[in-house]
Design goal:
With about 160 residues, the protein is α/β, with parallel strands linked by helices. It is built from five helices and five strands, in the order αβαβααβββα. A five-stranded mixed sheet has the order 2-1-3-4-5, sandwiched between helices.
Length: about 160
């Protein structure tokens, strides 16, 4: 996947996220788990791994919590026999979070609808099982998917922190 705007976007994001303020719903006590990004076949497994690494960098720069990274090979043994990572959403993610003792779990989903690409990031509170933040960004070209991951992740974290 082309690396358009990666350095500039990351720099802008890091500057905008440098000082989050706490509120009643914001606590990074405990770890944040990031599960490998998935798609509807729009992007390859290798591209999904790349996008996941990008999310990891943003998360590490944003939060001072322990970051747990669960790539496909880590998740597969935790799934019901015959299931694949692309089958694991919502309750499945929360169960994985409980299994690894994470406080929060997040993942990105990439889909193509016509000529548009859509990236959705979601974050769950593992203890409650509730989705606590999500954001979707649409872009018109495959070369803009990284930008969509950035925007969607930033919006999700802003919801999470109450900014």
């Amino acid at each position: 996947m082309r690396k358009i705007f990666l350095s500039g976007i990351l720099a802008v994001f890091l500057c905008s996220c440098a000082s989050f303020q706490s509120n009643a719903s914001y606590s990074t006590t405990g770890s944040i788990a990031i599960v490998e990004a998935i798609s509807d076949g729009t992007t390859s497994i290798q591209e999904n791994k790349h996008l996941t690494r990008y999310m990891i960098q943003i998360t590490e720069q944003t939060f001072k919590s322990e970051i747990l990274v669960l790539m496909r090979e880590h998740v597969q043994p935790l799934l019901v026999k015959g299931a694949v990572l692309e089958d694991c959403e919502n309750d499945c993610l929360v169960q994985i979070g409980k299994h690894i003792n994470a406080a929060y779990i997040t993942q990105a989903y990439i889909v193509k609808d016509g000529d548009e690409y859509s990236v959705t990031t979601e974050m769950f509170n593992v203890a409650s099982g509730q989705k606590i933040a999500s954001a979707t960004t649409d872009v018109s070209s495959e070369s803009s998917i990284e930008r969509a991951v950035f925007l969607s992740t930033a919006q999700m974290f802003n919801q999470f922190t109450g900014k």
